[in-house]
Amino acid sequence: MNVLVLNCGSSSIKYQLLNMDAVPVVLAKGIVEKIGLTYGSFTYKPEGKDKVVAEQPIMDHSVGMDLILKALVHPDHGVLKSLNEIDAVGHRVAHGGEYFSESVKIDDEAKAKIKALGEIAPLHNPANLKGIETMEKLLPSVPQVAVFDTSFHQTLPKKAFIYGIPYEYYEEYGVRRYGFHGTSHKFVAEKACRILGWDITEKKIITCHLGNGASITAIDKGKSVDTSMGFTPVAGLVMGTRAGDLDLGALLYICEKEGLDLPKANNLINKKSGVQGISGVSSDFRELQAAMEKGNEKAALALDVFCYNVKKYIGAYAAVLNGVDLIIFTGGIGENDNLVRWETCKNMDYLGIQVDKQKNEVRGKDTIISTEQSTTTVMTVTTDEELVIAMDTVRLS
């Protein structure tokens, strides 16, 4: 069974074509960027063949989707003989609100709910819906499935998701903690337990998805019970360009001093803050570490703040769980940055955490990095959100 996985942003489309027979295989992948701008970009990498890169105007998502489909059946670099070989399409949808506690096969009701949630996820859900509707036109007979970033966190107890504001705002507008990166948190927790031979329903796990966007989740007996992102993905950890947890009074003060309206304030906390804002260097941790090694004190501070935030959330969630059996690092930073893992886990003896410095010198592998004496197991686990989407798509198609 061939599944096309799509992640549509406001001006981009990330995609993978996977064959899900027996062992899953990525047949092709790539990205369409700068949709709607004068110069668009199309990248396509078929398995075992050279990458194809083209720059051309890509006026809308329909044009981008058409480029993807034509590449997949191209006589020279295609991986399919015809589009009839695409059996299903899986979509990453950012926000499922309280409507969706699991992935669903897309129908008119699902589309209406995804559209309604555009009010609380204006940067993501409209683009996700656009991808769904475009694919309906291009492949009308192919079943489609929506996989939601928020669905895994629908098991949060009310005490964990209600904010300290008038309750009417939750009732009228749905303002509450939703959490994101759910597909990744669920996937790596289950994967780690398979590797360790553990029953996930007996374990207390803290998953750290660390990338340009970053979040931490407390998982008790296989269910999410708390998570760091909130009503939007800007809450929680200090991230690449996102502020994370911020005193609302401080934001109001800055807005008054700088004369910032709502769009500018939104841009500030989402695009100009985080480690980039602190360092003035970059949101890329490789560039931050290079600057730190050259003596840049703000770059060093940005890394310290990030690691401190991760450590603080691990401690908080250990309290929520009343202990922890396993800590997982995943995502681009979590899987590959040994310095971040080391700085985060040192001086956490009270949780029985001991990381082996030599084992920690690892990138992009599923492996234990804690010592044999450590009473809490610490692992790096590679995530694969596209595979999760493909698996759910197969299950529901």
Automatic annotation (TrEMBL):
Keywords: ATP-binding, Cytoplasm, Kinase, Magnesium, Metal-binding, Nucleotide-binding, Transferase. InterPro entries: Ac/propionate_kinase, Aliphatic_acid_kin_short-chain, Aliphatic_acid_kinase_CS, ATPase_NBD. It comes from the Bacteria. Mg(2+). Can also accept Mn(2+). Its cofactor is Mg(2+); Mn(2+). Mg(2+) binds at residues 7, 385. PROSITE patterns: ACETATE_KINASE_1 (PS01075), ACETATE_KINASE_2 (PS01076). GO terms for molecular function: acetate kinase activity; ATP binding; magnesium ion binding. One of its GO terms (biological process) is acetate metabolic process. It holds the Pfam family Acetate_kinase. It catalyses: acetate + ATP = acetyl phosphate + ADP. Its EC number is 2.7.2.1. Catalyzes the formation of acetyl phosphate from acetate and ATP. Can also catalyze the reverse reaction. Belongs to the acetokinase family. NCBIfam families: ackA. This is Acetate kinase. The lineage of its organism: Bacteria, Pseudomonadati, Bacteroidota, Bacteroidia, Bacteroidales.
